[in-house]
Amino acid sequence: WRIDNLLIENAPNLIWAEGGSGKSMFALFLAVLLDQGHIDTDHQLVVEPGNVLYLDWETDHSEIAGRVKKIHAGHNISSSTGIIYRYMGQPLERDTDRIRDIVDERNIDVIIYDSMGLAVSGEMENAENVLGFFRAIREIGKTSLVISHSNRQGTIFGSAYTSNAARSVWEASQSGS
């Protein structure tokens, strides 16, 4: 485990939920814990520290940096972040070689893919498109956390391989108001 009982080491892990449920914020929280080598005793998350690459198809660097600063402030972390950010403008399969170069150059241990809908080349209902995405993740290697969304029926969006190709799958939900 990269994070005990949450992220399986050297495998694709997936978290999904409806939009606006906090998936990206949770992924960044985990990224900060990994980056800082912090054992968060309040949540009892045992973390194997490592270098994190955040691949972002949805927002921009300033939004992610602002969220990381808030997480640092909330956990009284004064050191700067080591999380590597990269905005992604094309599907993962078209950028696999460049991502592998970054992983090698920066000694990356964990990659966050935010989010699968824009990272897949083509329709997510198509099994071959989803399998191509997961083949690219496996080719790049390392521990990964893929963020995905729910469909109109409230289940995981896309082909059955969206959940079948990941080693662990987590559904997130909001609680309280």
Describe the structure.
- The protein has 177 residues and is an alpha/beta fold.
- It contains six helices and six strands.
- The protein has helices at 23-36, 61-74, 96-106, 116-119, 127-140, 161-164; strands spanning 12-17, 52-56, 84-87, 110-114, 143-149, 168-171.
- It has a six-stranded parallel sheet.
- Helix 2 (61-74) links the parallel strand 2 (52-56) and strand 3 (84-87).
- Helix 1 crosses helix 2 (61-74) and helix 3 packs parallel to helix 5 (127-140).
- The longest helix is centred in the N-terminal third of the chain and has 14 residues, at 23-36.
- It is globular and about 45 Å long.
List keywords for this structure.
six-stranded parallel beta sheet; alpha/beta; 34% helix; 177 residues; globular
Task: Provide a quick synopsis of the model.
This protein has 177 residues and is an alpha/beta fold. The protein is built from 6 helices and 6 strands, in the order βαβαβαβααβαβ.
User: N-to-C SSE series?
Assistant: EHEHEHEHHEHE
Largest sheet: 6 strands, parallel
- The proportion of strand residues reads 15-25%
- Compute the number of helices: 6
Over the alpha carbons, how many angstroms does the gyration radius reach? 15 Å
Helix percentage: 25-40%
Poorly predicted regions are none
Span from first to last CA? 32 Å
State the total count of DSSP E strands: 6
Strand order of the largest sheet: 3-2-4-5-1-6
Structural class: alpha/beta
**Mean pLDDT over all positions:** 93
What's the overall geometry? globular
